Amino acid sequence: MNIDKFKHQHVDILGNIAALRRLAQAGVAHNATEIARLIVSMSSTIKLHLAVEDQALYPALQRGHNPELARLGQQYQRDMGPIAQAYEAFARRWNLPESVRRDEQGFRDDANRVLRMVHERMQRENHDFYPRIEAEELAAVA
To answer: I want to staple 49 with a disulfide (CB 3.0 to 4.6 A). Which of 4, 9, 30, 122 is the partner?
Structure first.
């Protein structure tokens, strides 16, 4: 299975997280409109990414011939549940500029906690999970 699209989505999401960090450092209230807009945009990418993982990637791993990769896929899918729920709550809470302006410190605290979870998860996928999938794909072709 070609996972290039997943990797590109990770680049987009990680770029959005970095942009949110820069905007917050430059002033949460001053950048509230752009922060909220970026959260809405990033949420679309995350929702699409998770849906395609659930509908295509994980089922493909289950149908594959590598039981270790199938088990790892199940673990990654299971572990993503609480992270996805935390992100969805974050996005609902901070998708309006007024919400961000009204509670700057709440936004900062929530962003630090939730976006760190998302960032760390994607880094694990980038450095552990995706390389294993690609190695399996190469082995199947060879």
So the answer is: 9
